[in-house]
Amino acid sequence: MSDDSLIQLTQDLIRFDTSNYGDEPGPGEREATEYVATFLSNLGLEPVIREAEPGRTTVTALWEGKDRSRPPLVLHGHLDVVPAFPEEWTYPPFAAEIHDDMIWGRGAVDMKGIDAMFLEAVKRIITSGRKPARDIVIAFFADEEHGGRRGAAWMVENHPEDFHGASEAVSEVGGFSVQIAGKRTYLIQTAEKGISWLRLVGTGIQGHGSLVHHDNAVAHLAGAMTRIGSHEWPLDINPTAEALLRGVAELLDIEYEPTEERVAQIVAGMGPVSRMIEASLRNTSNPTMMDAGYKTNVVPDVATGYIDTRYLPGQQEQVLRQLEELAGNHVKVEQYIEQPAVEAPFEAPVVEKMISALRTADPEAVALPYMMMGGTDNKHLARLGINGYGFAPLMLPDGLDFSSLFHGIDERIPISSLRVGADVVVQFLLDC
């Protein structure tokens, strides 16, 4: 089938401004959701649109497979994107222009290009008269970029029947290639760090800015944010990370050792994704926002800050206790958004099918598991007992710093990568 429809799908989806401003109002996903629902309806499926709040919509559809006795697989994406500011971009972020054989625009990587790849694969199979190996639950969620409260989390809480019996889920941020020692290696995401967005509230005594203040809310908060931001979390290698490090060490032809020095050497050998992998080997806590006061000469009695914390599986409580200690007596730590760490097995039949599909396009493909430093809607589906994987198979050009494109200025995706990805997803769904 021509690639024109894949390119058009990607451009159409990017051109819907579905910017997610978090707790602030935004355009929502309604128009993009209706576009996807129409696309699926035209293929003979029966999509259902549900709305958690006005404009915050999710669409699901059941696609019957050859073997209906097997548990369904969930193929899902999200339709919201983080905001983009045109003055910062080389090309307009919602124009989906093609330059240098890439489609540019907000969501090209995260994740409307992948959404298009999934939809194109569904279209190719249906129009060829074939069926997937088993039932597929197709889902495109709202609100992934702000924790999923109005998207996947809402669906799991209010409409779990849409995912009844499903055993595995496949979505973004995995299956992409990196060059390691000259070998193209595909990183399949089998685990995600937990997410804890924290609100820090510093308190003190309000007063005139000209007086001596020993109980200053802004100073208390600033001290807490500095201590947390400069805290060095130790190296902590869990089984998923160890499997990745051992595999990369073998490719680099060096011996694996769980030491800071050797791990740093192995991670450095992963090139553009090294920062992403480094973040999966320890807990992290980064100050991101602060708000206090209303006038220069008034010391406020409250100051608020926010921390983005990502913790390793099983370490939620100990990380929170450490942050409370770092915050100090005058600053209260409140959980703002909480999502659990999740892990799924790499040694599993569904992963074997992923690797087999990859090798139809790249016979020498090496596949390794990795833990994502962030999170996806797989976290919410895990509450239904569904093992989630990142498998958006992209054969990327050598040297492309793919990880920096997520939420970045001038986000873009190579057309050639989308083409190969659509082929691989077709093979995977026919064999999954």
CATH topology of the largest domain: Aminopeptidase
Oligomeric state: single chain
Number of discrete domains:
2
Q: How many DSSP E strands?
A: 19
The SS-based structural class is alpha+beta
Approximately how much helix is present in the residues? 25-40%
CATH class of the largest domain, anyone?
Alpha Beta
Distance between the terminal alpha carbons, to the nearest Å?
A: 21 Å
* Order of strands across the main sheet: 1-2-6-3-7-18
CA radius of gyration: 23 Å
CATH architectural name of the largest domain = 3-Layer(aba) Sandwich
Mean pLDDT: 96
CATH homologous superfamily caption of the largest domain: Zn peptidases
Largest sheet: 6 strands, mixed
Overview of this protein structure:
There is one protein chain. With 432 residues, the protein is of the alpha+beta class. The chain folds into two domains: 4-191 and 342-431, Zn peptidases (Aminopeptidase, 3-Layer(aba) Sandwich), CATH 3.40.630.10; 194-339, Alpha-Beta Plaits (2-Layer Sandwich). 31% of the residues lie in helices and 25% in strands. It is built from twelve helices and 19 strands. The chain has helices at 4-15, 30-42, 112-127, 152-158, 217-230, 239-252, 260-268, 274-278, 316-327, 349-361, 378-381, 415-431; strands at 48-53, 56-63, 73-78, 98-99, 102-104, 136-141, 168-171, 176-180, 183-192, 194-203, 207-208, 284-292, 298-299, 302-311, 331-339, 342-343, 366-372, 387-390, 412-414. It has a six-stranded mixed β-sheet with strand order 1-2-6-3-7-18, sandwiched between helices. The longest helix is centred in the last third of the chain and has 17 residues, at 415-431. The two termini are 21 Å apart.
